[in-house]
Amino acid sequence: MKVFKQIYGCGKMVLPVAVFLLFMQGIPLNGNFLHAHVLNDPPGINCPGDIVTVNDPGRCYAVVEYTLPDETYVESGPASGSDFPVGVTVITLKSNDGMHSCTFIVTVTDAEPPEIFCPENIIQSSSLGDCQVVDFEPPYAVDNCELVSIIQLSGLEPGDIFPAGTTVNTYQATDAAGNTSTCSFSVTVTGNSSTVLNYDGSTSQLMAPQGGVAYQRSFYLVSPEEMAGSDLTEGTEIQSIGYTIGVPSESEVSASLKIYLQNTTDEESRYDTAWTAVTTSQDHYTLSGIPEGDYEWQVRAICSGNSSYSPLKEFSTVDLNECGQPYNLETTDIAATTARFAWEGRDSDGFQSYLAEYSIYPFETWTEAATTNTFFVATDLIPDTTYRWRVQSIC
């Protein structure tokens, strides 16, 4: 409270509180009259507290809201709900009567690291023997605010000579707020060295495709056992594969060879890379709803220690209404004068029988045998003689 005193009359006087209260009621005192005017101070401003927040995702600002006190307005700074840039912003509020003001601070921190993009992994054959010059586009980065630098933490630079093997290149991007992010890619140089797989010299005539001839068989080009015995590990990227297949023969022969590769991204060479696994406690399993195509399957026992997989078996759902060609030919129970020929057949409309034929290799004199079974036992064979056999469906 402020008290303004105006004294009329002569002399000076000091008013005690009691006299002052009487005078406030308009009571004259000793011929003098005191005028007192009492004014209330304007109220202060309940200013908001300082605000600290992080940037909105992908933005170099944050939308910030605050409560504006009654009877005030924003004298300087962004209004509530505005975009506040990364950094410090001072807001000044003022009372509507102009008597009071206050300030508070809004701090927006850039907490978002930059995004850095590395090239794909590089695989390059060496033309120099044990090393190779490898060029590539350097990584690039983007940031929501300001990108400061991209530096290489490890590896070699574009255009450098890379040694045979795999070199990992790692880069780091840093923004103005000190946020960092990294990316890596590998450069693999394949030298002139090669991996030679062990081969035990074994052959098999137990499995042959339709119309099988001598030494024609189904086999692994690279068997799991050979893989385990080599220095190749799972995930090794193979750029090329070479092979030699030869069978001694007393006469000149010609044949065709078709190779299927598993676990490869080469669509034309891949036989199948996606196995579908099912479990059953029965000794059989029925498939349903599978699309038309050629299939192979195998089975293993699940125990405390799992067994190895059985040999692959094939079947086809192609042209089931045609006179289906037998497949999965197999020769078993071979003795000095007998052998059992077995195969699998497709369901065919108008099926009548199978015609199995066998002959002494390399002659073309065929012995025929008709059967409705999917096997035939040949007898009266000549000991120590090589035979070939084939089978067809009769519809």
Please give a structural write-up.
The protein is mainly beta. Helix content is about 5%, strand content about 35%. The protein has a four-stranded mixed sheet, with no helix packed on it. A hairpin with a 6-residue loop joins strand 20 and strand 21. The longest helix is centred in the N-terminal third of the chain and has 8 residues. The N terminus is likely disordered.
> Helical element count?
2
Number of strands: 25
Q: What can be said about the biggest beta sheet?
A: 4 strands, mixed
> How far is the N terminus from the C terminus?
120 Å
H-E order: EHEEEEEEEEEEEEEEEEHEEEEEEEE
Mean pLDDT over the full residue set: 76
Q: Please list the strands of the largest sheet in the order they lie side by side.
A: 3-8-7-5
Low-confidence stretches: 1-42, 201-219
Shape: elongated
Report the radius of gyration as a whole number of Å: 47 Å
What is the helix fraction of residues, given as a range?
under 10%
Strand content: 35-45%
Q: From the helix content, strand content and strand pairing, which structural class follows? A: mainly beta
Essential attributes:
395 residues; 25 strands; disordered N terminus; elongated; 3% helix; four-stranded mixed beta sheet; mainly beta; 2 helices
